[in-house]
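Hey, quick one: can you model this chain's 3D structure?
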Amino acid sequence: MSKSIVKSLWLMLFAVVICCVLYPLALWVIGQTLFPFQANGSIVKDKDGTPVGSLLIAQQFTKDEYFQARPSAAGYNAAASSSSALAPSNYALRSRVASTLGPIVRYKSGPRAGELVAPDIESWFQQDRYQGNSSIVQQWADAHNSLAQAWASADSTHAAYIAEWAKTHTQAVAEFVKSNPSIPQPQPSDLAVLFFETFSKEHPGRFPSAVMHPDSAGRSTTAIEPVIGGSDIQSTFFDMWRGDHPDADLQEIPGDMLTTSGSGLDPHITLQNAEYQLDRVAAKWATDTKRDVQGVRAEIEKLLQDRSFAPWNGLAGEKLINVLEVNLALRNQYGTPS
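Sure thing. Here's the predicted structure for all 338 residues.
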């Protein structure tokens, strides 16, 4: 009996040494010797040697000089990798896709082929009529309560703006509390729909949006104000504009510009996606470098072609580019964006 126990203990010790010491050590030596870049997370650095990210994990780029990654349900947080898991019937998904389309979609045919739809969304919005009825903002808030509440929670300045509104609309807030006795002290998100209903009547054809102002020290400060144009209106009301203009012939958008990946951290976009963004990127770099836009565009297009690849050496799938790799190459070539 004791011999069996001793043999079992030796066997367990042998297995632990093999599986938990020798095998990991062998992999570490092979990785550090033959594949040090991949084994250490595929971290890339800028010209100064400062790490800027991993080629395996997407990150958000907001400047117009850079190509933008796919939307991320995880907020580009590697510690919270996830998909949105939203069904096609979920309006939150439709709203997110529409918000992406508003500022970038273009007409496909007709006298304005190739032009952005965004200015027409703004002009239509300013008329303050949807489906023949007035008060576009009120209709939006009433039809999509959750989106109105999400706006209130999206930024502290939004919540503060509603809180200030509540101070000057005490009667409306009191009526809300009377109708909702379970919410005796409503928060900005609770009042969001009521706020937008009131705002729509007081500021027809306008939407509350962030506006930058220089202060006395020359620094920029942000304030929420009623506006008649801008990306917030283009994004928020594209879907309603489309409902009023069902016959408008619009260009197709690469699917990966609108959909998230399963992880929310896909570092690649299709070459088609990058080429759709090319005009914006080239125009901004041309402005920054004070060069001819066509020349800059040709250089960036060549860079995309040189750095594109297809899985299995082209045997499967579309051509892809790594967003971080290309954006880093742009910065190395043209400098840091202004």
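One thing worth noting: Strands lie at 43-45, 51-54, 129-130, 133-134, 207-214, 220-227, 268-270, 320-322.
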